[in-house]
Design a protein that fits this description.
The protein is of the alpha/beta class. The protein folds into two domains: about 200 residues, Rossmann fold, CATH 3.40.50.300; about 180 residues, 2-Layer Sandwich (Beta Polymerase, domain 2). It contains 14 helices and twelve strands. The strands form three sheets. A five-stranded parallel beta sheet has the order 2-3-1-4-5, sandwiched between helices. A five-stranded mixed beta sheet has the order 7-9-12-11-10, sandwiched between helices. Strands 6-8 form a two-stranded antiparallel ribbon. Helix 3 packs antiparallel against helix 5, helix 12 crosses helix 14 and helix 13 runs antiparallel to helix 14. The longest helix has 25 residues. The radius of gyration is 24 Å and the shape is elongated.
């Protein structure tokens, strides 16, 4: 099963995308519908809301009067928190029931209007954001929903802005144009990414390896890392000591393969592993994949032990290295990154090595030959990096590079 988060600002046309995904075969779980279902007349949820806020929030038929309740809670943080305490558990339980009822091979799309505002994106292996220009959103709200332009602008301003949504988006669908245009984009997304992503997760396999090809540095690499690091921490929980961006894509302005390398530090590799948790975040165990990963010769191979995972998402190549935080491999991955960040000469030498290896193995169907061609350079670089660490007093950084998150907001009424 593949779970996808779908969101977008009011008037962006998220429902158009959701309908097309359902037509293609997705299972839709609509947060708005669930939020209404849990407070239907006669429900325990409605009884709790009435007990907390009084019968004044009910209409003449005994149902929930949403405008009256909204007037009570949206200007009062304490009241909003009290409402959240009633509704969030009910919505969460009902959502879990619907997701659990989906078939094992389902692509479950969870339509959540406040996914970004509620900082819920890290709970999904992939987030789709539907976008339209401000002018188009206002036009739709005025013509289709009967709002005034002033009310439409106010509703838009009360939600997350485009920058926050872009930070959460793995897929950004521009729905400013015609419904046919965005449906064509959704069809391509379904065929080329979502269907193979689900199959890879279900069959417990990573995306196919890529031939070694260096690209110019992508300014989006840090944002991609931020999203992935948040997912890894959410999936693994307390087992994660820290998460770090490592490898060439962690060095600003440095050409690299378009594959992110991430290190998950754990207390020990012994005992229960993180395999099931990471599958929920979109990763599968892939010992056959050879990553862009320094592994110098060492008298004790146990010092370099790790588990290697790869992204099952065909649209996002990632190598996830799981290492014990007291291992040599864990320390060296961070040292190597920081040494390259600090030393231009080291970057130039390593880039020349990578370019030669990539040219030699450009026709390979995987990266094994490319990685092996760099091993002699890594062996020599270890002692150079260690001398740099001694000279500069380098130590493992005290904190990782995982972004911080704000608290939950209220569900849409």
């Amino acid at each position: 099963m593949l779970r996808i988060g779908l969101t977008g600002g009011i008037g962006a046309g998220k429902s158009t995308v959701a309908r097309r995904l359902v037509e293609l075969g997705a299972t839709l779980v609509d947060a708005d519908l669930i939020a209404r279902e849990v407070v239907e007349p006669g429900s325990p949820g409605l009884a709790e809301v009435a007990a907390a806020f009084g019968d004044g929030v009910l209409d003449a038929d005994g149902g929930l009067d949403r405008p009256k309740l909204g007037a009570v809670v949206f200007g009062d943080p304490a009241a909003r928190q009290r409402l959240n305490g009633i509704l969030h558990p009910l919505i969460g339980r009902r959502t879990a029931e619907l997701v659990a009822a989906a078939p094992p091979d389902a692509i479950v799309v969870q339509d959540i209007p406040l996914l970004v505002e509620g900082t819920m994106s890290s709970a999904f292996p992939l987030v789709i954001v539907v976008h339209a220009t401000m002018e188009e959103r206002i036009r739709r709200l005025v013509e289709d929903r009967g709002m005034t332009a002033e009310d439409a602008r106010a509703r838009i301003a009360a939600q997350a802005d485009d920058a926050a949504r872009r930070a959460a988006a793995d897929v950004w669908l521009d729905n400013t144009g015609t419904p046919g245009a965005v449906r064509a984009e959704v069809d391509r997304l379904w065929r080329d990414r979502l269907v193979p992503f689900e199959a890879n997760l279900r069959l417990d396999r990573p995306r196919p390896p890529m031939p070694p090809r260096l690209v110019e540095p992508d300014p989006d690499w840090p944002a991609r890392y931020d999203r992935l690091a948040a997912r890894i921490r959410t999936a693994v929980g307390d087992r994660a000591v820290r998460v770090d961006h490592i490898g060439s894509t962690a060095v600003a302005g440095f050409p690299a393969k378009d594959v992110l390398d991430i290190q998950l530090g754990v207390h020990t590799l012994d005992g229960a592993d993180e395999r099931d948790a990471l599958r929920g975040a979109g990763f599968t165990l892939c010992p056959a994949i050879v990553a862009d990963n320094p592994k110098p010769a060492d008298p004790d191979p146990a010092h370099w032990a790790k588990r290697l995972y790869g992204s099952a998402d065909p649209g996002r190549p990632v190598n996830l290295h799981v290492r014990a935080v007291d291992s040599s491999g864990y320390r060296y991955a961070l040292l190597f990154r920081d040494w390259l960040r600090a030393e231009p000469a080291a970057r130039e030498e390593y880039l020349a090595t990578k370019r030669q290896a990539a040219a030699t193995h450009s026709a390979d169907s995987d990266t094994s030959g490319y990685a092996e061609a760099k091993e002699p350079w890594f062996d020599a670089a270890l002692s150079t990096a260690e001398r740099w660490a001694t000279r500069t007093g380098w130590r493992i950084p005290e904190s990782d590079e995982t972004p911080q998150h704000v608290g939950m907001d209220s569900p849409k009424l």
